Amino acid sequence: MNILERYHAMDYAPAPEARSEADAWLAGRDFSKSLFIAGEWRAAADEKTFDTEDPSSGKLLAKVSDASAADIETAVAAARKALPKWSAASGYERAKVLYAIGRAMQRHQRLFAVLESLDNGKPIRESRDIDVPLAIRHFIHHAGWAQSLDREFPGRKPAGVVGQIIPWNFPLLMLAWKIAPALATGCTVVLKPAEFTPLTAILFAEICERAGVPRGVVNIVQGGPEAGAAIVNHPGIDKIAFTGSSEVGKIIRKATAGSGKKLSLELGGKSAFIVFEDADLDSAVEGLVDGIWFNQGQVCCAGSRLLVQESVADAFIAKVKTRMSRLRVGAPLDKNTDIGPLVDKTQLDRVRRLVEEGAKQGAVCWQPDQDVPETGYYHLPTLATGVAPANILAQEEVFGPVLATMSFRNTEEAVELANNTRYGLAASVWSENVNLALHVAPQLKAGVVWVNGTNMFDAACGFGGYRESGFGREGGREGLEEYLASSEPHGPVIKPVSAPKAAARDNGESHAIDRTAKLFIGGKQVRPDGNYSIAVLTPKGKLVGEVGLGSRKDIRDAVSAARACKAWPEATAYNRAQVLYYLAENLSGRTEDFAARIVELTGASHKVAKAEVETSIERLFYYAGMADKFEGRVHQPPARTVTLALHEPVGVIGIVAPDEAPLLGLISLLAPALAMGNTVVLVPSTTAPLVATDLYQVIEYSDVPAGAINIVTGHTAELAAVLAKHDDVDGLWIVAEADICARAEAESTGNLKRVWTGHGRSLDWPTAQGEAFLRRATEVKNVWVPYGD
Ligand code: NAD
Questions:
Q1: Is 565 a catalytic residue?
Q2: What is the DSSP letter of 244?
Q3: Probe residue for ligand 1, chosen from 119, 130, 169, 263 as the CB with the greatest number of ligand atoms within 8 Å
Q4: With contact defined as beta carbons under 8 Å apart, do 506 and 530 qualify?
Q5: Distance between CA atoms of residues 173 and 301, nearest Å
Q6: How far is the CA of 361 from the centre of ligand 1 (A)?
Q7: Fewer CB within 10 Å, N side or C side of the chain?
Q8: Distance CA 36, CA 221 (A)
Q9: What value does the mean pLDDT of the chain take?
Q10: How large is the average pLDDT for residues 438-467?
Q11: C-alpha to C-alpha distance for 772 and 567, rounded to whole angstroms
Q12: Which residues 6+ apart lie within 8 Å of 644 measured at CB?
C-alpha cells in the first residue's frame, strides 16, 4: 500500500473517554436519597423514584428520588429559613462561596463532563469543552458580581426565595445560569432539574456541601412536571425562573398571574441562520454545523432555519451536504463523535413525526448515507429543502438535528423571512461586509445576534429572547436584575372605583357628542367606534364633560397606528429628546389650565394640583435628558469578539394609567416609554380622563409623529383586557386595582408580552422616576462581532 492509498484508507479508531470514575460515582452513591434539602440528602416523602437512563444504550443509570408537593414544601421552608442570613451576608462572604463552588467544579471537571454525556447523550467533546467550562465560568464571574453589588446596584434587595426549573438539554449549564446569579444577589434557591437528566445536579449538590454553601441556601429537588408545578404554585416563593418549552412557559405565566411573583421565562426558538452571497461560504458551513447539529439540535437557539441568498444557494447547499456526510454519528463518550443520540425515545419520536409532517407539506428531506448505532435514540442529521415559510419545519421548534432551508433575494427579504416566526431568541448573520451585518442585526427580532459565528455564550453577556421565546435575560448585568426585588417606590393599595356612568347616547349627530372629547389615534382626534361616550364627574358628582367610550375596535386601531409609526422608533435618541423637551415646554405654557383641571376632577387644592403639573414637566425634562443617555454597553468576553449590548425599544407598549395623580401618573409611565423609542397605546385615568384629552393639543404642538402616542379613553378593566390579549402589543404596564392586573397577566400568554403591573398598588408618583422605568422600556439585544483573521 503506498502512502496515498494509506491516506485514503485512514479511518477513525474509537477514542472513548474513560468512564470508570463516573461508574464508581454511580455505584457508590445512594440514589434513593437524592433530594438535597437543607444541606441533607433525603428520600422523597413517599419514597418514590424515577429512572434515568443512558440514551445511547437505553440502560438504567440510576433510580432517583422523585419529589412530590410535600418535598417541595420542605425545600421551600429550608430556603425561607436560610434567606435572612444569606441575604445579609456581605458581598465578600457570598463571593467566597461562589468562588469555592467554581474551584470545586474545576477539580471535578472530567467527572461532570462524563456524567453529562452519559445522562444526556451529548458528545463528550461538547460537554468537556463547552458545557462544563461555561458553567464554571458562570460561578467565578458571579463571585465578582456578589462583591460589586452594593456599588453597581445600590440599595437593591434580593428577590427572595427563588424557584428554578430547568430543561434537559444543558443540565449543568442551565443550573449554573440559574444558581450563580441567585446566590450572588443573596437569594436562596429551590431548583428542579429535568427528569431526563438529574445526575450532574446531584453531583453539583455534593459540591455545594464541600464548598461551604450554608444549609438551605441551595436546595435541589429531582422530579417531573408535578414537582415543577408545586414550585410554581408555592406561596412561599418570591420569584420563578424557568427555562423550557414555550408551552410550559405559558402555563407558568398563567399560574403565577396575580401572585406578585417575579417571573423570567427562557423559552424555545426557531432561529434564523442567514448567509449572504458575500459570506465566506466554507466558514459559514462550519458555523452551520455548530448552529444546528451542536447537541443534536436540542438547543433553544439552534440555527434551525437556514436562509441563504439565492445567488449562492445551490453552491452552499452542496457544501452543506458534503459536510453532513462527514459528520460522525456515534457513541457520546467517543471523542470523535459529532452527533450523539437524542435524549429520550419520546424526543426521537417527536422529531420523526415532525420530519414526516414537513415532508407531507412539501419539504424534501435529505440525510447522509450513514449507519446509526443499533441501540440508542439516534436520528441522522437531516436537511429539508423546498421548505415553504408556512411549513411545519419552518415554524415549529423541532429540537432535533433537522435544518429547514429557504432562500432569499435581497436584504429586505432576508429580514422579513427571519422575523417570520412567533419566536425571537437568536439569529446568526454571515457576510464579509460588517456594514451589512450590522445593518441587518438591529432589524432582527431576536435577543441575541451572532455575526459570522453562532452559539457563543458568556457569563458576562445577557442571553434571552423576545415574544414567545420569553422574557428576561440570563448572564451579565441584565441577568442580575432578574434576581433583585423591584425598586419602584410603592404607593397605596388601589381601591376599585365604580365604573363611570355611560352617557347613553348613540346618535353621532347629537350636540352632546360634538362636545365629547374624542380619542387620539394615529395623530388624529377620532370618534370612538361605537359613538358612545361616558360622563366625567367631579368628586361631588357634577357633570363636567364627556369622553369617548373606547372599545375593542378602537384599541385595535390604536395598536395598528402605533405599529405603523416607524418615525418614532427610527428617530435618533437626540431627536426623541428634543420632542420630549417640546412636550415639557408646551405643557409648561399651560400649567394653570392643567392645574385647574386637576382641581376640578380630583378635588385637590390648587397648590397640590400645580405641584403635580410642575413635577410632570420636570419628569418630561428628566426623560428627555435620559433619551440619549440610557445606552447599551460593550462586553469583552474571553473570545476574540466584542459583544454589543444594544438598547432597543420593546415595541408597542400598552399603558394603563392610574386615577390618582392623573397627570403625573400618566407622564411618569408615558415619558420613559417614549424616551426609549416605543410607541404607546395609553388608557388614561377612568375618573379624570379629561386631563389626558387636554393633552392632545400639547402633543399636536410638540412634533410627536403620528401614531407614537395613541390615547383611548373608556373603562380601564375592559381596555386593559383587550391590550393584554392583543398579540401585536409587545409590553403592557398597568397601574390599577389588583384583579385588573391579575387578569392582564393571565391573559397576556398569547404572545408572552412583557407585563409589568403594580399588583394592585399605586406608586409614589412624586418619586416614581429613574432607570427602573427605562429598563422596562428597553430590550437588550446582544450582538456578537468577532475580530481577527
Ligand atoms: P419542558 O418545558 O417540557 O420542561 C422544562 C422543565 O419544566 C422540566 O424540568 C419539566 O419537568 C418542567 N415542567 C414540565 N411541565 C411543567 C409544569 N406544568 N409546571 C412546572 N414545571 C414543568 O421543556 P424540555 O423539553 O425539558 O426542554 C426543551 C425546551 O427548553 C425547548 O423548547 C428549548 O428551546 C427550551 N430551552 C430554552 C432555553 C433558553 O435559554 N431560552 C435554554 C434551553 C432550553
A1: no
A2: S
A3: 169
A4: yes
A5: 14
A6: 28
A7: C
A8: 6
A9: 95
A10: 96
A11: 25
A12: 632, 634, 782, 783, 785
